[in-house]
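HUMAN: Spend a minute on the protein record below and explain its fold to me.
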Amino acid sequence: MTPTFATLGDHPISARWPAEHPDRIQLYSWPTPNGIKVSAMLEETGIPYEPHLIRLSGDVTSPEFLALNPNNKIPAIIDPDGPDGKPMGLFESGAILIYLADKTGRFLPAGAARYETIQWLMWQMGGVGPMFGQVGFFYKYAGREIEDKRPLTRYAEETRRLLNVLNQRLEGRDWIMGADYTIADMALWPWVRGLSFYGAEELVGLPGFGNVGPWLERALARPASQAALNIPDTNG
């Protein structure tokens, strides 16, 4: 159970990652696609925050981090000025994006468009992230040593299908929702960029999706996106 806490300093995570600026949102992350999503949102909004580097081996399973995210995954945040002015911890990148959008009033439209944006965010979280991540595992990391290539084939085919869905959605649009950049784009572009990091562009046919490449270039051209690629600083 996530502990209740009256101040940031009362939370167990502060014992291991103390805040220099306790009045700011605290980001606990590593620049994977899911981590980059939230860093990009924080950079885009300009809301003050303090990043803490959480290493994927060791740190995520520490008692201090598990007190904030029992699922031992990055990213997570603590907002010292949460709802009703009380501090609040939050994990799951999609939930954090929605929270920050509501807090700042940016990158999530109102009315019916709000739910359509969230729909595409959920599509990323339920499909793109898990499938693209499995391609990375079976093509670049330890899974490549598995002789049976059926898992890789399965995930590569599903990744191509998802890219086709994205490509169709972007037909005639600059962004997922049309003219405006939203949290749906922020959630998706780090994962599409990740296919190049995995060296899997040709495997999944990325160059053949003519709307996806220009969209990714537009997203990466944003200063906040470039900054987010190195937040937190892994050399720190």
Remarks:
- The first helix runs from residue 13 to 16.
- The chain has two domains: 8-106, 112-225.
